[in-house]
Fold:
Amino acid sequence: LEAHHPASVTTDRVVAAVDEELDRLATDGIGADELTRVTARLRSHLLQAGDNVLQRALRVASYEQQRGRPELTHELPDLLEQVTAEQVAAAAGTLRPDVRARLDLIAGAA
Structure:
């Protein structure tokens, strides 16, 4: 997760909000309408990002380096449509504070 926020909002507040949402997803799940909206938005973003040649090349290189599958660049938008509410809840349940790393980068900080 990457978050950009104004200096008036502390990183602890942002992380607390993320933890709240993850807890909600893990315990209550995600509604079908919300899942449809989110996957459509993500799919649209992936397809639009592919219009930029540099972004597409960087994504191909990243998928090759990390997964050995550069073709994921073209497959991922369609794979998003296969995500289920149960998978979202299970994934949210794994993103607990005790099993993750956190790095705060503060602009201008020395």
User: Anything to note?
Assistant: The chain is about 65% helix and 0% strand.
